[in-house]
């Protein structure tokens, strides 16, 4: 933040993001679907008016992030599918001067869905566990107002039913 001639504080400068993002999705087999996404980013602050910030990484942006999702339709059990999602995010700069970084993390989600008909109505039951390994991680960070670290959700179970009327 810089002060102008009227002592008003404002954000100054630019944040440049250069990189590549790749995604692939499809069916490997009749009963097996997948989706994979990768992003590699090089970020840099410039024109901030503060030498300690220019040329540094942009906060809250990992250099590498990936997600893999798999879903398998269980043979012999009509309507039953199991799935898993793995996410990875590399370390992120916490402060604009890049003195402090939060570590990267891995998160695994597991789930299942069962589609059937009840009284002629299509019904899907779902069960899942987010962050199955109960990993502690910093989901987001911001240097605003002295800095905030926002933790990711702990292991969380969920159950739902969808009724298509």
Give the proportion of residues in helices: under 10%
Order of helices and strands: EEEEEEEEEEEEE
* Count of separate DSSP helical elements: 0
Sum up the overall morphology in one term.
elongated
Task: Using brief descriptors, characterize the structure shown.
two-stranded antiparallel ribbon; about 0% helix; mainly beta; about 160 residues
Question: Which secondary structure elements does this structure contain, and how are they paired or packed?
Answer:
Elements: E1 2-3, E2 9-10, E3 14-29, E4 32-46, E5 64-73, E6 80-89, E7 92-93, E8 101-102, E9 105-118, E10 121-130, E11 138-142, E12 148-151, E13 156-163
Quick description:
With 165 residues, this protein is mostly beta strands.
Describe the structure.
It is a single chain. This protein is mainly beta. It has strands at residues 2-3, 9-10, 14-29, 32-46, 64-73, 80-89, 92-93, 101-102, 105-118, 121-130, 138-142, 148-151, 156-163. The strands form four sheets. A seven-stranded antiparallel sheet has the order 3-4-5-6-9-10-13, with no helix packed on it. A two-stranded antiparallel sheet has the order 1-2. The protein is elongated.
